[in-house]
């Protein structure tokens, strides 16, 4: 059985508090607002680019393209090209991407539940 100590000794356990740690790039990816929305949007079904863009209001074509490419590069999203006329491209979550659903949905739910108190706090701060 591999332990955390074994992983740490092999240099494979990240330390996100170190500036040079690759986990920072992972945290940047999953902490991005477009990533959160795209991953949760893909929770229930494969979607085409245009369907994703409609679902995630406000995202530009450029940002959605960059987000999807990054997620695909990181192994979190799968891009499937169907050889039809016209070509149909769909996106869905990989198994690794599915593991993000619980924490990202929790963040989304937290933001909805605490919207009132955060908004009130912002208004109070801005008045001061």
From TrEMBL:
Stretches of the chain forming a coiled coil according to its record? none
HTH hxlR-type domain location, by residue? 21-119
Q: Name one Pfam family in it.
A: HxlR
Endpoints of the signal sequence: none
Q: Does the keyword Nucleotide-binding apply?
A: no
What molecular functions are annotated in GO for this chain?
DNA binding
* Keyword terms: DNA-binding, Transcription, Transcription regulation
Q: What protein am I looking at?
A: Transcriptional regulator
């Amino acid at each position: 059985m591999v332990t955390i100590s074994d992983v740490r000794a092999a240099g494979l356990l990240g330390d996100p508090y170190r500036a040079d740690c690759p986990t920072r790039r992972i945290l940047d990816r999953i902490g991005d607002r477009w990533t959160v929305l795209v991953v949760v949007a893909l929770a229930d079904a494969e979607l085409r680019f245009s369907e994703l863009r409609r679902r995630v209001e406000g995202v530009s074509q450029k940002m959605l393209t960059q987000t999807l490419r990054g997620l695909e590069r990181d192994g979190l999203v799968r891009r499937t090209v169907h050889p039809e006329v016209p070509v149909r491209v769909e996106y869905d979550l990989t198994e690794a991407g599915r593991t993000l659903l619980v924490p990202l949905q929790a963040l989304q739910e937290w933001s909805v539940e605490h919207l009132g108190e955060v908004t009130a706090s912002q208004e109070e701060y801005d008045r001061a």
